[in-house]
Amino acid sequence: MGGADLRVRLLxxxxxxxxxxxxxxxxxxxxxxxxxxxAGAGLLYAGLVRPGFLARPVEAKPAFMERxxxxxxSRPELRDKCTxxxxxxxxxxxxxxxxxxxxxxxxxxxxxxxKFSELFIPQEAAHAKAGQ
Length: 132
What we know:
Number of domains: 2
Structural class: mainly alpha
Mean pLDDT: 76
Low-confidence stretches: none
Largest sheet: none
Number of helices: 6
Oligomer: single chain
Shape: rod-shaped
Distance between the termini: 94 Å
């Protein structure tokens, strides 16, 4: 029953448009064109403009730098250096250590220290220094 009612309504709407003349049809086309223009502008805003406001600049995380800085085996001359984790200065693309640090849950482990020994002092030297 509902399908038949819908078909009758659509047929009556079509007849009304057909009978009412060309002026009403032009008005309908204009309304549809305006609606499409607003819809297109809304999609453009949502897709291009809005993400620009939501994007944050990429920068190194000082908290992760602190983890290296406070590690008892970190090299003193490399503390506070972005290049420990990043290629170049000021964050951005990570180097091999930075990638491994992320994969390890941003934790410095003995395994990470062994793999990147150039960034850490030997554990024996650190223990001897702590004992003095």
